[in-house]
Amino acid sequence: MLLIDSRAGSRELLVPLVNMGLPAEETILAFGDIAFIGRGEGGRPVDIGVEFKQLGECVASFRTNRLQGHQAPGMRATYDFSWLLIEGELLYNKRGQLLRRAGRRELKRLPGQLTINELNKRLLGLHLRGGLNPWNTQNRVCTLKWIEALYRSW
Question: If you write DSSP's letter for every residue of 6-55 in order, what string do you get?
Fold first, then answer.
């Protein structure tokens, strides 16, 4: 059973996941946006957690230190395996400045003034030191398919 946090940011995942045939229900999670119990080695139950963020939200949480200072340590303490699922097209210019689509052909700087190098270094740090495995999806369809694959792999 997929447990989906009912607060803003993740609650819009519930209906599409149920429509895909996945068992899911709303709840309030102390840490993460999605949680479930998987089968580890020898069938041992393991707690799986996913922190879900839009790319702009991820950048903002790095800038406020919320992700690395509060959420990642909580995820590490709560779950046996944790992921940071970042949804959004990863665009950047020649200077490495992160961009977002502002129309069909127009790109603008992503708020937060983060570069692709800084983003990658922070994600690697969370992975290596915090046990939070980063994964990027381009859009909602890809996000839902990734969640399904993660759930079914356990």
Answer: -STTTGGGHHHHHHTT--EEEE--SS-SEEEEEE-GGG-EEEEEEEEEEH
